[in-house]
Write a structure and sequence with these properties.
five-stranded mixed β-sheet; about 65% helix; 60s Ribosomal Protein L30, Chain: A; about 270 residues; alpha+beta; rod-shaped; single chain
Length: about 270
């Protein structure tokens, strides 16, 4: 009886331990399952993080490449800007030089014009005693024209300067000798009536020899610098009046003394 009770009691204790152990095992399995779930979550998160990291690396590489391109483009633009600034500087300098040249030319032209007016006044004063039939004085295009009629200088058909004409040349020479920066042209002109004599083959001959006669008197007798003076003959080909009338022919028979300030300095500036 007692033994049966002991066996029954022992069975009850084992059953209780078994239940406790089973409960612990189930709890452990549950915890393992939970841990496995968390581990799966960790694996999943790790994959997502790896993918994100990979994407970030790609983005970083792309951004780095774009940044390098932007820097290159910026440097290129800065280089172009430097070139443009240099070109602009050159153009500004060229413009300043041109403006300076223009100012110099304007000043020199104004000075030449004043010079011409001064010479013109001196010539008019020197030849004040001669009538309009004998000579005329005018200014055109920066040059002074003194047209002496053959009535003043020569007898008809002759190239010898008479006393009245020589007096006019003497007074003009006083003005010319004071000018060292002028060029002087002596042009002989005739009317359209042909001439043919033992001395003159035609009007060309007459106009050239008359111009040369005036040059000889100015240079040899009144000491005008021969390097400043040049004769030429125009014949009947540059009339100032109609050759159909006696009055017109008389105006065409003339010797023109043309005074022009030297333009060497102007030419030098223009060639710069």
């Amino acid at each position: 009886m007692g033994a049966m009770a002991l066996i029954a009691l022992s069975g009850c204790v084992s059953q209780k331990k078994y239940m406790i152990a089973e409960s612990g095992r189930l709890d452990a399995l549950s915890q393992v399952a939970a841990l496995e779930g968390k581990l799966e979550d960790c694996y999943s998160n790790s994959d997502q993080l790896s993918q994100r990291l990979t994407q970030l690396l790609k983005d970083t590489t792309r951004l780095g490449s774009e940044l390098r391109n932007y820097k290159s483009l910026l440097n290129s633009n800065l280089g172009e800007q430097d070139k443009l600034n240099a070109l602009l500087g050159e153009k500004m300098k060229e413009l300043e030089e041109r403006e300076q040249t223009i100012n110099e030319l304007q000043d020199m032209i104004a000075s030449q014009q004043r010079r011409v007016q001064e010479i013109l006044g001196s010539v008019k004063d020197a030849l004040l005693g001669f009538s309009n039939d004998e000579l005329t004085i005018s200014e055109k295009d920066g040059k002074i024209y003194i047209a002496m009629s053959d009535k003043l200088l020569f007898t008809s058909g002759s190239a010898k300067v008479d006393k009245r004409g020589e007096q006019a040349l003497a007074q003009l020479a006083e003005v010319l000798n004071k000018q060292t920066d002028i060029d002087i042209s002596i042009e002989g002109h005739t009317d359209s009536k042909p001439i043919h004599t033992a001395q003159f083959s035609d009007n060309w001959d007459l106009s050239v020899i008359r111009a040369t006669s005036v040059v000889r008197i100015l240079t040899q007798k009144y000491n005008v610098n021969p390097l400043q003076i040049q004769p030429s003959g125009r014949g009947e080909f540059m009339p100032v009046a109609d050759n159909e009338s006696a009055e017109g022919r008389a105006k065409n028979r003339r010797t023109e003394i043309i005074i022009a300030p030297k333009l060497d300095k102007l030419y030098q500036i223009l060639q710069q």
